[in-house]
Amino acid sequence: MDGVSAGFPVRFSRLIPEVQAGPGGCLLSGTKCQDLPFCEDTGMPPILTPFGELRSTLRGVGLATWLAVSAHAILALPAKPERLTSDEYWPFGLSLIGFGLIFWLATHPRSDALPIRVKLGLCALEAIFALSANQIFNGNSLLSGMLLVAAVHVGILLPLRLAFAWIGFQTLGLALILYINWPLIEAASYTTGWLCFQVFAVLSAQVAVREVQARQQLMLVVAELQTTRSRLAEASRDAERLRIARELHDLVGHHLTALTMNLQVAEHGAQDERSRTHVERARTIAVQLLSRVRASVRAMRDDGPVDWKAELEQLQQHWEEVKLHAALPDDLDTVTPAQSHILLRCIQEIVTNARKHGQAQNVWIRLDCQAHQVQLSAHDDGHGALTVTPGCGLLGMRERLESVGGQLKIDLDSAPGFALTATLPLSGLSQ
C-alpha cells in the first residue's frame, strides 16, 4: 500500500469505510475523481497522502537536527581530540554525510512514488549511518539524536506496533554501542532515556498522521456533500423546467391555438384586401409564436443541441425590419446544449430590444469560444441610450447568465447604437 502508510489502513467512520490512494496520490472514497472539486480533473489540488503532506515538515526539522548534531560533534573535537584517531576522520565524516544524503533523498518530493519497501530501506540506511557515526565517535550521546529523526520518519510510514518494533531494534544497536564505550549503569540509563525519546517521537508522528487523515476525511465528506447538493439543485431545476413547460403548453399553447383558428376565420370573412392582409399577417405571427412556444417546451424537456443556422434564419424571418449579421465560430461543440439555449435566448432578446427600443436597422452578433469561456458580443446601429433601466428582458437575460456562472456587461459608451457582452464559463453549469 504505497500511497498511504503501508499496513496502516485508514478507516474513518461508517460514512467512509476506507480511504485508499488513487493515481497521483489522490485519496478517493468510492467517489469518482471528476466528482470531487479538489481533484486534478477540475484543476484543484488533490488530497495528499499523510507522508506526502507531512514530508516538508519532516524534511526541514530532520535536516536541521542533523546539522545541529553534526556541528556539535565537529566543534567538540578540539576539546576532546582523543575521540577520533587519524584513521577515523573519513569514516566519521562519511557516516554523517551519508545520513544527511539518505534522509534528503528519502524526503524528496519524488520519493512519494517509491514503493514502501524502498522507503523503509532508506530508513534502515539512516539508522545504520547514525549508529556508525555514534560508534566511531565512541558512543557520543548527542549523536543519538539522529535516531530520533529516523524514528519520526518510520512513525509516519508504519503502524504503531511495527514502528515500536523498529525503534526497539534501533535502541538495541545503540545499547550495544554504549555498552562497549561506557560503564554499564551509564549505558543502561542513556539507552532507556533515548528509548523514551524515540517512543515519544513515534507517538507524535502517529498523532500528526491521524490529524492529517481526519482533515482528509472532512474534505471528502464536504466534497461529497457539494456533489450531492449540486445534483439536488440540478434535479430541482429540471423539475421546475418541466412544470413551466407544462404550464406553457396547457395555457399559452391552447390560447394561441384558439387565436390562430379565430384569425383564420376572420381572414376568410375580411371584406377588403387591406384588412385581409393585416389579418393574414397577424395569423402568421400567431402561428410562428405557437411554433416557438412548442419549441421552447421541447427545449425545456430535452436540452438537445441547438441548430444555430436554422434558429438564426427563423429569427431573421421574424424581424424582417432588422438585418442580422452573425459571426459564429466552428468550435461551438464545446458549448453545452444548456448554455447554447441560454445564448440563443440572449440573442433573441438583443434583436428584440434593438428593434423595439433602438429602432436599429442592423444588429451584429459575434460568438467567440475562448480558453475557459464563451463570449457573446452584440451591438446595433440604433439610437442607443444614456442610461439603462433594466426591464424584464434584460433582467431575465442577466438571471439566465448568472444562473450558470456567467455575467452581462452593458456598454453605454458605444456610439452609435447599443452594445453589450455576455460571458459563460465553459466548465459547465455552476453549482
Automatic annotation (TrEMBL):
Keyword tRNA processing: no
CDD domains per UniProt: HATPase_UhpB-NarQ-NarX-like (cd16917)
UniProt key word Metal-binding: no
One Pfam family, short name: HATPase_c
GO molecular function term, any single one: phosphorelay sensor kinase activity
Domain of life of the source: Bacteria
Domain Histidine kinase/HSP90-like ATPase span(s) in chain numbering: 342-426
Any GO CC annotation of this UniProt entry: membrane
Segments forming domain Signal transduction histidine kinase subgroup 3 dimerisation and phosphoacceptor: 240-303
This protein's UniProt keywords: Kinase, Membrane, Transferase, Transmembrane, Transmembrane helix, Two-component regulatory system
Transmembrane parts of this sequence: 58-77, 89-106, 143-160, 167-185, 191-209
Matching PANTHER family: NITRATE/NITRITE SENSOR PROTEIN NARX-RELATED, OXYGEN SENSOR HISTIDINE KINASE NREB
Descriptive protein name: Sensor histidine kinase
